């Protein structure tokens, strides 16, 4: 398969294959980390927030547990098979190490701490409903913009501003769809686990950080995006640094870990994409360019602070933050285009409910109607416009109905209702 670059399907859809491969690979990496590398390095994974210890509290940070003198439970401390099984399941299911002695950094603060299990489950269910509604709107925007960008590419006559608006809508709708899908799956699992009493609310902090912190590419990846792979990046990039004999905390060590982390991320995501269908080099360009841009960001920030005579630890000004937001938005809009296009074409971004199927059809029909309306309005000499406003609105309303029934019948609907018989068919085609 690796030689022929031929992906074998195991599920009913590409997204099913993607998800199965994600779980399989992360389970393998987690096992290798804790049972192989950890054993060789003499470190043990200890479950701090265990049934033998506190199940809730003001915080689940490692520092809090240490301050309370809680050493946690290692595998060797588990006597019965039930305890060992629980310990192993807790380890494999905790990608960020919440409640463990190896919890990763930059985990968002948990707003549900202090709630009962039922209250936390109810709050997570409310989040699921909100995310479900948002995902439906995003699916509409994805199909609407995808139809417009396809026609715009084929015709090649759209203005720069029009093209950029379409591309930005498509890219960020896809991005928000992936963002909200991950959050909805996470909140669903959290609602079930807290309702059944398997976990405490403190064990389910938010999956993503605040969007307001995304005023640089570095902060976007380090604080805003989910930190599910952070442990994997730290372990394997640290192993590389140790092998190369680089001193911890030096320039060479920091940036070796940076580039190694994004290369590992590329390998992981390439495996997912390969299982769903070959991706060629899109993932490599996307992930490795992030490391390059972060290096550039660090350099620009250093020069800016030096020339301005400011301390490098000084707080960021409003001007710097605004420039950072614009820069981050422009960068991810540019670099994400190919990746989201591939995901959309492979079916990794697709309607998952009957409502989303209907909204997708509606969006495509509205996109065609929008293009046809533009065509009519920009060629007023053919239709001998202006037409009465009421008549135009009535015509557009009829076109929507025809579009929903059969998109291909839209042209006939306009042609039949246009009072100007000399209107050419070529003008009506989207």
From TrEMBL:
Cite a GO CC annotation. membrane
Output the InterPro entries linked to this UniProt entry: Wax_synthase (IPR044851), Wax_synthase_dom (IPR032805)
Residue span, Wax synthase domain: 204-288
Q: Belongs to which family?
A: Belongs to the wax synthase family.
One family from Pfam that matches here is MBOAT_2
Q: What is this protein called?
A: Wax synthase domain-containing protein
Q: Which UniProt keywords apply?
A: Membrane, Transferase, Transmembrane, Transmembrane helix
Q: Which GO terms describe its biological process?
A: lipid metabolic process
Membrane-spanning residues: none
Which PANTHER family does this entry report, sorted A to Z?
BIOSYNTHESIS PROTEIN (TRI7), PUTATIVE (AFU_ORTHOLOGUE AFUA_8G05970)-RELATED (PTHR31595:SF60), LONG-CHAIN-ALCOHOL O-FATTY-ACYLTRANSFERASE 3-RELATED (PTHR31595)
Places the protein is found? Membrane
Listed GO MF terms: O-acyltransferase activity
């Amino acid at each position: 398969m690796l030689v022929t670059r031929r992906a074998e399907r195991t599920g009913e859809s590409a997204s099913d294959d993607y998800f199965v491969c994600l779980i399989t690979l992360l389970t393998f990496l987690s096992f290798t980390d804790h049972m192989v590398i950890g054993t060789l390095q003499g470190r043990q994974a200890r479950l701090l927030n265990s049934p033998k210890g506190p199940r809730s509290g003001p915080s689940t940070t490692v520092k809090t547990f240490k301050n309370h003198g809680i050493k946690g439970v290692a595998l060797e401390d588990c006597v019965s098979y039930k305890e060992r099984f629980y310990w192993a399941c807790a380890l494999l299911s905790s990608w960020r190490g919440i409640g463990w002695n190896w919890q990763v950094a930059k985990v968002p603060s948990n707003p549900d701490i202090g709630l009962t299990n039922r209250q936390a489950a109810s709050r997570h269910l409310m989040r699921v409903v909100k995310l479900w509604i948002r995902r439906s709107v995003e699916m509409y925007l994805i199909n609407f913009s995808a139809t417009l960008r396809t026609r715009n590419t084929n015709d090649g006559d759209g203005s720069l501003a029009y093209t950029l608006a379409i591309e930005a809508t498509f890219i960020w709708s896809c991005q928000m769809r992936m963002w909200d899908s991950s959050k909805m799956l996470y909140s669903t699992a959290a609602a079930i686990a807290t309702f059944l009493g398997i976990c405490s609310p403190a064990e389910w902090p938010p999956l993503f950080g605040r969007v307001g912190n995304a005023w640089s590419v570095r902060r976007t990846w380090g604080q805003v995006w989910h930190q599910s792979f952070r442990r994997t990046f730290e372990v394997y990039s640290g192993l590389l640094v140790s092998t190369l004999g680089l001193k911890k905390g030096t320039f060479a060590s920091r940036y070796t870990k940076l580039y190694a982390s994004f290369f590992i991320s590329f390998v992981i995501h390439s495996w997912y994409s390969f299982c769903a269908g070959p991706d060629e080099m899109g993932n490599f360009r996307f992930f490795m360019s992030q490391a390059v841009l972060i290096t550039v960001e660090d350099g620009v920030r250093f020069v800016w602070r030096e020339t301005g005579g400011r301390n490098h630890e000084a707080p960021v000004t409003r001007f710097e933050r605004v420039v950072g937001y614009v820069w981050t938005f422009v960068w991810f809009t540019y670099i994400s285009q190919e990746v989201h296009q591939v995901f959309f074409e492979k079916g990794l971004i697709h309607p998952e409910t009957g409502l989303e199927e209907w909204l997708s059809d509606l969006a495509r029909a509205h996109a065609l109607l929008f293009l046809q309306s533009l065509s009519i309005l920009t060629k007023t000499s053919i239709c001998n416009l202006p037409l009465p406003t009421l008549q135009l609105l009535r015509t557009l309303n009829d076109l929507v109905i025809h579009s929903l029934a059969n998109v291909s019948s839209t042209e006939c609907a306009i042609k039949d209702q246009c009072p100007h018989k000399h209107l050419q068919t070529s003008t009506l085609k989207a």
